[in-house]
What we know:
This protein is an alpha+beta fold and 400 residues long.
Amino acid sequence: MVVGASAAGLLAAIFAARAGARVVAFETRAKPGAKIRVSGGGRCNLLPGEVSPADYHTSGSPRRLRNILLSWPLEEVRAFFEVELGIPLKREPTGKLFPVSERPLDVVEALLRESEQRGVELRTGTRVTEIDRRNAGFVVAPTGTGAVEAQRVVLATGGLSLPKTGSDGTGFALARALGHDIVPTFPVLVPLTSSDATWAALAGISVAATVRVRDEGALVMERTGSFLFTHRGFSGPVVLDVSRAAHPRAVVEVHWGGAETPWPDLLRTPGPLSVGRVLRDALPRRLAERLLARAGVPAERRTAELRRAERRALETELVACRLPIDGNEGYRTAEATGGGIPLADVQTKSLESRITPGLHFAGEMLDVDGRIGGYNFLWAFVTGRRAGRAAGLRALAANG
Ligand SMILES: Cc1cc2nc3c(=O)[nH]c(=O)nc-3n(C[C@H](O)[C@H](O)[C@H](O)COP(=O)(O)OP(=O)(O)OC[C@H]3O[C@@H](n4cnc5c(N)ncnc54)[C@H](O)[C@@H]3O)c2cc1C
């Protein structure tokens, strides 16, 4: 029995069925894989080009994370999609892997085809509201149909991010009712908010940037990528990536254009060049104007004529511009969930609960979240396969 039919749940169902078990999968939504359908800006960033445990966070043991993550090597995951499911992937310059078709629906349809061919019974539009222990197994109560008995249950209900896709936290309630503690959850890969209207005036502008987060002076995270101004604050891949570290007491600084843009040298360009021109050559015009205004430097000032205090103020705005952050947009727009089922409470090899034998976990429910770039799907696929296969094999073994 699998609860939740998205990235982790569909993999769990396929691999439990491939192991020979009879599998029923319940999914609240009428259409499975809602989050795959909206992923990667509508293009589905299915996998990263490379992976290391350092691309993930957990409050638990890094060793456990590593053992689970590397149990299905990235090349094999890629081959599963390309060769077994027939979805060719392409690698973009950022290193991210997308379907050549750039159609998330191709991924969902291929997963559904494979699960159907393996005999998975998919019950969509059905929400599981209760799971009780019964003898050596479970009784699962879904909405709309009678209770179902199962020897094993894989919970793959996702976290709390983007709840309109179906992941509304019921899975955590089900796990709690079965004796599990949950590491406190919080939104990650989430846009940051700011009430400073002067930045909001730049909404819609996108620019390359290096963003650094400092906590009590120490650098805790640094990422480079695309930065986007919004009406509510700041977004874009680079902002989402640092969001888990950007709590209200942290300092968030930006090096506009990316850390390799040598602003101090550019501001010393010899000749009759104005600073306005230097900035506009590398940055969107309105951002350049805003930074000059913040530094109190007239755009027409020639680089050679910059006063010492002006030069210092402008360099600070360009390489360590402090952003006023109030908070974040929350689960409503977050791409993932921090916290969840502690890794210490599951067996590494089977993802079976140490508290409720027979219950397995997969995907975003677990206390692991990845950076932007296909890492969260990879985690969902690796854990879905691991939990599904173990549940399937153990259900068969119990049947003799
Ligand atoms: C806008 C957006 C874009 C993203 N883009 C990417 C990307 O390009 N690449 C990437 O790697 N990651 C991306 N992610 C993250 C990725 O989508 C998730 O990490 C991944 O989908 C988690 O898989 P999951 O199966 O664990 O959970 P989910 O995909 O959330 O699936 C859980 C499923 O369980 C169902 N469910 C919940 N409760 C119940 C219940 N009680 N009974 C029955 N069913 C239930 C839900 O309806 C849902 O279908 C994105 C996320 C968002 C929000």
